[in-house]
Amino acid sequence: MRLLRVLGLLILAVCVLVWGWSIWAEEAPMPTSQGVERKIVAEVNGEPIYLEDLERIWNSLPEAYRTQFPRGMQDLLEQFIRQLLLLQEARKIGLESDPEVVKQIEELKKQVLIREIIKREIIEKVQVSDEEIQKEYNANPTLYTEPEQVKARHIMVSSREKAEAILAELKTGRPFEEVAREKSESPDALSGGAMGYIRRGDLDPEIEKVLFELAPGNYSDIVEINDGFHIFLVEEHLKPRLKELSEVREEIIARLTPQKQQEAFEKWIEELKSKAEIAIIEENLPSGSNAEKVQEGGSPSP
């Protein structure tokens, strides 16, 4: 599995737990300027919730998460209060010293430490150089080329007779867009039959053949398709264009970064392994299909 996908899942799993434990739990107070009083926004059984903690969490939330709090900080405060009530209740019944809970907290701590060391040693350090960007751009021009495309309009009616009447009307010089609004039976009639930009491969080959052979400003003859009878107009015909490096620089960085991070991660792991003392006790390791049936006691299940 790719490093970033693993890390992404780890972060997603950890974030909820970390916010719930380290933020809504009793955490070490944030340092404040001497003499500056921390503003309390709520108290739960005498335990304060501080404005700066609320703001810190709000500012760290991704925009997509904020939509889950329609009333903003008020809704977030409600979540703080709920979490604190649950936390106080858990402490009241002694869950902090429960062996299973302690074990889960230790596992979470390990995950947070692993996430942070990967972030600091790999994610934050690995950079894609200008030379690598240029090399990728030169080596894969097709990836960074805008395909041939046309900007088109169409008129669709339910019978050939109607289509022939419209074609005759167009030949008098009446604007295509105007006729489309008035006569087309297609849902896009209100937009003058606008089809937007169409790339090769977007539509049925029969339609594409008509569109890509038309010169800009020209309209087609009647084309019969399953849903009716069409007349097409091509407004623009754009040839394939290799984008400027500046246009695709960020795309190239996004493409190369995961691979570089993965390579750096594997190299780093091998370096750590070379410096470590690792002993694998093969005879204690289940083999074959039995490895999938290992029970908590350490022995394969029958």
UniProtKB/TrEMBL annotation:
GO terms for molecular function: peptidyl-prolyl cis-trans isomerase activity. PROSITE patterns: PPIC_PPIASE_2 (PS50198). Keywords: Isomerase, Rotamase, Signal. Residues 147-236 form the PpiC domain. Signal peptide: none annotated. This is peptidylprolyl isomerase. PANTHER family: FOLDASE PROTEIN PRSA, PEPTIDYLPROLYL ISOMERASE. InterPro entries: PPIase_dom_sf, PPIase_PpiC, PrsA_foldase, Trigger_fact/SurA_dom_sf. It catalyses: [protein]-peptidylproline (omega=180) = [protein]-peptidylproline (omega=0). SUPFAM superfamilies: FKBP-like, Triger factor/SurA peptide-binding domain-like. Its EC number is 5.2.1.8.
